[in-house]
């Protein structure tokens, strides 16, 4: 019976590469993966925001996850893609695209497979991580996309709502 409980608690994660490092996100937050295409830059956005795309009539901000995590900007290649994720920001669901160098696979982990993140050596803010999991002879950093993209709410709000200029009464 315990084996059935472990199997039931296993979750699937999408793994992808950023700057030659492997990361994973809960597959339930992934809506789709699209080819990297035309991204419109938006003046005044943070350096890690590449711009916006039109996704079936919706404006979706695109974040360079490598820059957000303190790495160099992701160079674009044939395998570059945008992973469309849905996160919870201040109680609301927000759709954001994140640039990945390449998508690898969907893999299953049980809660026992994911260790707490080490206090040193990852180069990623600890609150961005749900943990670290072993895959074969290497490790994958499991990202908490709600935490990683939590400050994107300002960017999303600015893109969706035109600023209003107050006039003196």
If you had to describe this structure to a student in words, what would you say it looks like?
With 169 residues, the chain is mainly β. It has a single domain (6-160), classed as OB fold (Dihydrolipoamide Acetyltransferase, E2P) (Beta Barrel). 15% of the residues lie in helices and 44% in strands. It is built from four helices and eleven strands; from the N terminus they run H-E-E-E-E-E-H-E-E-E-E-E-E-H-H. The strands form two sheets. The chain has a six-stranded mixed sheet. It has a five-stranded mixed sheet with strand order 3-6-7-5-4. A hairpin with a 2-residue loop joins strand 4 (49-55) and strand 5. The longest helix has 9 residues, at 152-160. Mean pLDDT is 84; it is low at 153-169.
Features:
169 residues, mainly beta, OB fold (Dihydrolipoamide Acetyltransferase, E2P), five-stranded mixed sheet, 44% strand, globular, disordered C terminus
The chain-level structural class is mainly beta
How many strands, which pairing sense, and closed or not: the largest β-sheet? 6 strands, mixed
Number of E-type strands: 11
Helix content: 10-25%
Question: Kindly, what is the distance between the CA atoms of the first and last residues, rounded to a whole number of angstroms?
Answer: 71 Å
Radius of gyration: 17 Å
Q: What is the succession of H and E elements?
A: HEEEEEHEEEEEEHH
- Counting structural domains, the number is 1
Fourth-tier CATH superfamily name: CheA-289, Domain 4
Which of globular, elongated, flat, extended, rod-shaped describes the shape? globular
What kind of oligomer do you see?
A: single chain
CATH topology: OB fold (Dihydrolipoamide Acetyltransferase, E2P)
| Low-confidence sequence ranges | 153-169
Query: What is the CATH architecture assignment?
Result: Beta Barrel
* CATH top level assignment: Mainly Beta
Mean pLDDT: 84
Largest beta sheet: strand ordering: 8-1-2-11-10-9
Tell me the fraction of residues in β-strands, as a range. Answer: 35-45%
């Amino acid at each position: 019976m315990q084996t059935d409980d472990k199997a039931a608690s296993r979750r699937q994660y999408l793994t992808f590469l950023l700057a030659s490092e492997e990361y994973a996100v809960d597959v339930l937050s992934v809506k789709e993966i699209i080819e990297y295409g035309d991204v419109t830059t938006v003046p005044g956005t943070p350096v890690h925001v590449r711009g916006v795309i039109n996704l079936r009539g919706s404006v979706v901000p695109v974040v360079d996850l490598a820059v957000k995590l303190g790495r160099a900007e992701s160079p674009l290649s044939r395998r570059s893609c945008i992973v469309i994720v849905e996160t919870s920001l201040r109680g609301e669901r927000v759709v954001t695209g994140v640039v990945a160098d390449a998508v690898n696979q969907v893999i299953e982990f049980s809660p026992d497979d994911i260790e707490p993140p080490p206090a040193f050596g990852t180069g990623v803010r600890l609150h961005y991580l749900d943990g670290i999991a072993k895959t074969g002879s290497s490790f994958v950093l499991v990202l908490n996309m709600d935490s990683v993209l939590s400050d994107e709410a300002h960017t999303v709000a600015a893109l969706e709502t035109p600023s209003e200029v107050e006039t003196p009464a």
